[in-house]
Amino acid sequence: MNDMHAVATDVATVKLLIDGEFVESSTAHWRDVVNPATQAVLARVPMATPAEIDAAVAAAQRAFKTWRKTPIGARARIFLKYQQLIREHMGELAAILTAEQGKTLPDAEGDVFRGLEVVEHAAAIGNLQLGELANNVAGGVDTYTLLQPLGVCAGITPFNFPAMIPLWMFPMAIATGNTFVLKPSEQDPLVTMRLCELALQAGIPKGVLNVVHGGETAVNAICDHPDIKAVSFVGSTKVGTHVYQRASLAGKRVQCMMGAKNHAVVLADANKEQTLNALAGAAFGAAGQRCMAASTAVLVGAANDWIADLVAKAKTLKVNAGTEAGTDVGPVISCAARERVEGLIASGVEQGATLELDGRAPAVPGYERGNFVGPTIFSGAAPGMRIYDEEIFGPVLVILRAETLDEAIELVNANPNGNGTAIFTQSGAAARRFQEDIDVGQVGINVPIPVPVPLFSFSGSRASKLGDLGPYGKQAVTFYTQTKTVTARWFDDDTLGHGVNTTISLK
């Protein structure tokens, strides 16, 4: 973490959003926002003080009193306006995102677009936040449910999708009648802040959406604050486990989507060219910095003969800055991330895997200081090797061998993570067996990254998830509301009473 005295004075400061105002932090501790392709300092982000975090929560608490009473149609219309504004500013948002995060401009637009889909879903809240009614469950008695907002909710988001994942969280929380405190990644908060500016422009009232910045101290403050009722987290397993335990102990609802090791199982009957393209795109796109990246291929039987073709496909990918036309693989987020990925590649060699393609230290003219790692492929990997057991979060594809589909399913199910998996085959019978027997929350059939559209919910499982309910979609409505059951009986003035009833019956 960089101190403010090490930062050039002419660099812009990232503001806090508290009670509808973008305010300068009074902190003494700042961090540089760095372009990962050039190391240029884009801005400095504050580590918010405890008082500033308290002020953000207090603003959200005050705003909840009126926002929760806002008609559902009025809430929906704000998000109709918001999706329009995001569309109008798509190019600008993608450019900001690429500068601070590194992914290619087309991929940055995809990042924004997948978040935009959730905003569109939030605009349909009138059809989603519906209770149930049972008429005349007993003599003159009706029972019905209300889905009511919780209060102040909070979100902690990662660096790899600085547009999409914040948009997974605050639109659904706010549309259901809650207020929100967002803590974006301190590594790339600029596009998130621009999205928040547009949200206010769309009509979100002051105090309904607030933003604080920081690291571990801010995360712990969110977990501990008595006025925050629910916390949504996406990030590493280590931090997510900490957030879940700490916030749960404080009595909050918590959902944590965490690390992954996503297996793509390839049968020999799969369409070869389509499968190779899918594997290369899903393993190396976004420089492998996706929790749903297909980072592990399980080649079954004769599909093991495809390794050379897969290496050839990976060699066609262009490593360059995300702003350069034709780039396929941009830089990883930081120097530390590059060093970690390179260290894991070295460990794979040391532990006996076969390095089929080494992407370390690629030549990228004009961007010699960038955090680049090129596509890297290992074969002969096995459980027990670090490159298999750990999430690399870089452009590294690890290949394992299986002789049968049953062996491949057993291998995938033995891995503790359960974010996503995929099978490539032209056999409907094999695909159906795979989807039934695999113990992973999100399954792709000839789809390498099976993240569902917002009509559904992100449904990672096992060690990749803590909490029962996933982000966005139907599950998010349940997560951000509490169900209140009402049992009612109305009497006409001339209705005769039935006397005193000392039993539990409603008759």
From TrEMBL:
UniProt keyword annotations, A-Z: NAD, Oxidoreductase
One Pfam family recorded for the sequence: Aldedh
GO molecular function ontology, one term from the record: methylmalonate-semialdehyde dehydrogenase (acylating, NAD) activity
Aldehyde dehydrogenase domain mapped to chain residues: 22-486
The protein's enzyme class: oxidoreductase
Alphabetized InterPro entries for the sequence: Ald_DH/histidinol_DH, Ald_DH_C, Ald_DH_CS_CYS, Ald_DH_N, Aldehyde_DH_dom, MeMal-semiAld_DH
EC number(s) per entry: 1.2.1.27
Signal sequence, renumbered to the chain: none
Any one GO biological process: L-valine catabolic process
PROSITE patterns registered for this protein in UniProt: ALDEHYDE_DEHYDR_CYS
Similarity comment: Belongs to the aldehyde dehydrogenase family.
Protein name according to UniProt: methylmalonate-semialdehyde dehydrogenase (CoA acylating)
